[in-house]
């Protein structure tokens, strides 16, 4: 696999921009350098458990419908850009406790800060703490360029269209039984997150829910994923800038054990392509938050 020292992201631009929407896939990067693999105590297959595997490919038709697609190339287990830059883990980072910076929250305590201490399965990534210099180098090489690119795309959309929408694209494992609501007939397949109503309008959430339900998906809102740092930081509906997180259940399109696409991949990608096209058309043409009737 390529080195994470290569360009930390890709941007696929539309030939003909069709509206003020930006798609972002912050967790689908799969460029694991030999240096990172040597630093880790885990094999590559275990490191990859934290990936939102193939999500960039699931949403790859967005540029063809008129919206840019930004995707990280570095892995989430190396740097997590869906965290605040100061979510430093004092258990992992040597000397961090002496620095006048950092926020400690449930994510950081669990080992899922901006530099993760564990992979998604809960297994520690390292045998020894990381230095502050190592963390700062990763943020400078990956985190800052990614958010600079995302902010620039959002600003360009806003300046051109007078508003902007970030669609933050993710995947999720099948939720465990304790996370499922008793009222659901089957596990959620799509989770839409808007930080409990603070990052985008109810109209947008209702529109997206209708689109996914039209293909038969079980859709829930904000449970168990309400949106991470990107949704929270970029969603400012009162200023005409909205953000929504979309989580797609991995069993729909991949084998989570082998980390391979299944026969369902093409179907899910086709459905997402149609939903993306409808979203761009309706959201771009809507006046204010009033969505066009279907």
UniProtKB/TrEMBL annotation:
Keywords of the record: Hydrolase
InterPro entries according to UniProt: N-FG_amidohydro
SUPFAM superfamilies: Zn-dependent exopeptidases
The organism of origin for this protein: Rhodothalassium salexigens DSM 2132
Entry protein name: N-formylglutamate amidohydrolase
Keyword Hydrolase: yes
Region (Disordered): 1-20
Gene3D superfamilies named among the record's database cross-references: Zn-dependent exopeptidases (3.40.630.40)
Recorded superkingdom: Bacteria
One term of GO molecular function: hydrolase activity
């Amino acid at each position: 696999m390529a080195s994470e020292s290569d360009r930390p992201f890709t941007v696929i631009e539309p030939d003909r921009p069709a509206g003020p929407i930006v798609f972002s896939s912050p967790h689908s990067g799969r460029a694991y350098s030999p240096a990172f693999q040597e630093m880790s105590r885990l094999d590559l297959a275990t490191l990859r458990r934290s990936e939102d595997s193939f999500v960039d490919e699931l949403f790859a038709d967005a540029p063809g419908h008129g919206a840019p697609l930004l995707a990280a190339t570095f892995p989430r287990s190396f740097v997590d850009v869906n965290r605040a830059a100061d979510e430093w883990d004092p258990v992992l980072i040597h000397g961090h406790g002496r620095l006048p910076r950092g926020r400690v929250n449930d994510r950081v305590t669990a080992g899922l800060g901006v530099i993760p201490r564990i992979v998604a399965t809960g297994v520690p990534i390292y045998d020894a703490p990381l230095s502050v210099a190592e963390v700062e180098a990763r943020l400078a090489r990956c985190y800052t360029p990614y958010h600079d690119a995302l902010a620039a795309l959002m600003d360009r959309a806003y300046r051109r269209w007078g508003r902007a929408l970030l669609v933050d694209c993710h995947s999720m494992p099948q939720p465990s039984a304790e996370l499922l609501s008793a009222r659901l007939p089957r596990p959620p397949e799509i989770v839409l997150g808007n930080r409990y109503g603070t990052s985008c309008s109810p109209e947008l959430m209702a529109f997206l829910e209708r689109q996914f339900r039209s293909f038969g998906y079980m859709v829930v809102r904000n449970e168990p994923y309400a949106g991470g740092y990107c949704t929270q930081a970029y969603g400012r509906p009162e200023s005409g800038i909205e953000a929504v997180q979309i989580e797609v259940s991995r069993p729909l399109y991949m084998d989570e054990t082998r980390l391979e696409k299944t026969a369902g991949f093409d179907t899910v990608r086709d459905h997402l392509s149609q939903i993306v096209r409808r979203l761009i058309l309706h959201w771009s043409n809507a006046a204010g938050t009033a969505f066009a009737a279907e």
